[in-house]
Structures are given as structure tokens and as C-alpha cells.
Amino acid sequence: MSIKTIFYSYSGITRGIAEKIQLECGGDLVEVKTVKSYSALSAYSKGCYRAMKGESDVIEPSSIDVSESDLLVIGTPVWAFRAAPAINAALNALTGCEGKSVILFATCSAKAKDTLPRLAEALTAKNVQVAGSFVFDKNDVQNPEKIDALIAAVKLAGGADITVAV
């Protein structure tokens, strides 16, 4: 079972969870980066506005081929109750995703509202099945039990033949 964890992280919190998934479940990490970086001010003004409108940023990598992966894990920070524009772009950049399963996770300060349902809707339109979704608020990201629940879901969705990286 091959896992690909795709994430965008502005502050490093989403990256930390993605790295824990890779450490426990193996697979490849794909960090999505914006071509034009956000400053602290522009992330909260321009970035949040773009997120609310469901817009995409220009990203690297510009294409994400997942045809060799069996399971996708996609992580995003929540900006204005929506996925960050970089993750919107990552969904558009996916190739070879038809028929795959995905586990979604979002990190936020308080509430994710409809972030994950909107991502699920976009992925369903690409014929990707959502096998689970997790929201981590500022307290949850420090709670090993919550992170372990996500990792267990990834292992379960990935099947019993996952080898844990040491």
C-alpha cells in the first residue's frame, strides 16, 4: 500500500502532523508551496479573502501525480473557515487520482466550519472517495491521542500491509 501525504503549511503546524503521519505510516510527503510567499499581513488579508472565495494560488509543484499511490492524505490550515488557497490549487493539480481514497485533515485555531466538506465535495467531483476527515484545533495539535486517531485511520484505510518506518 502506497501512501502520499500532500499538505500546505503556513506556520508549520500542518507540516508537523503530516510528518508524524509519514513517520508512522510511511509513504511520500508532498509539501505544496506558494510561488509567491505570504507575509503575516497578506496571509490574513489577501490569503483569507482568497480562501473565502475558494480561489487558488500558483503553487509548486504545479502538477501532483498520484497514480502510483493507493491512499492520499491531504492536510490544510484553515483560513477564514476554508482551505488555504494553496490546497485548492493542489486539488486542481492532482493527476491520476480517480478511484483513490483520501483522508483529510485541517488545522485551525478554533473552528474549521465547512472546510473539509468543501474539500470532500471537490475531491468527489474528481472521483476520489473520502475515507475520513479530522479537524485539529489549537489544543488538539498538542494532544497525542487525537493525532494517534488520525494515524490509526490512515493505517486502517491503507490496509494491514503498511510497514511502519523506523
Q: Cα-atom Rg, whole angstroms?
A: 15 Å
Topology pattern, helix = H, strand = E: EHEEHEEEEHEEHEH
Helix content: 25-40%
Q: How many domains is the backbone divided into?
A: 1
* Shape-level CATH architecture: 3-Layer(aba) Sandwich
In total, how many beta strands?
Answer: 10
Count of separate DSSP helical elements: 5
Specify the biggest β-sheet: 6 strands, mixed
Arithmetic mean pLDDT? 93
Q: What is the assigned CATH homologous superfamily?
A: Flavodoxin domain
- What ranges have pLDDT less than 50 throughout 5 or more consecutive residues? 160-166
Structural class: alpha/beta
Distance between the termini: 17 Å
Beta content comes to 25-35%
The CATH class, by name, is: Alpha Beta
Shape type: globular
CATH topology term: Rossmann fold
Structure description:
With 166 residues, the chain is an alpha/beta fold. It has one domain: Rossmann fold. It contains five helices and ten strands. The strands form three sheets. Strands 1, 2, 6, 7, 9 and 10 form a six-stranded mixed sheet that branches. Strands 3-4 form a two-stranded antiparallel ribbon. Strands 5-8 form a two-stranded parallel ribbon. Helix 1 (13-25) crosses helix 5. The chain is globular. The model is unreliable at 160-166 (pLDDT under 50).
SSE layout:
Elements: E1 3-7, H1 13-25, E2 28-31, E3 33-34, H2 40-52, E4 59-60, E5 64-65, E6 71-79, E7 82-83, H3 85-93, E8 94-95, E9 101-107, H4 115-125, E10 129-136, H5 144-158
Parallel strand pairs: 1-2, 1-6, 5-8, 6-9, 9-10
Antiparallel strand pairs: 3-4, 6-7
Summary keywords:
166 residues, alpha/beta, Rossmann fold, six-stranded mixed beta sheet, two-stranded antiparallel sheet, 10 strands, 26% strand, disordered C terminus
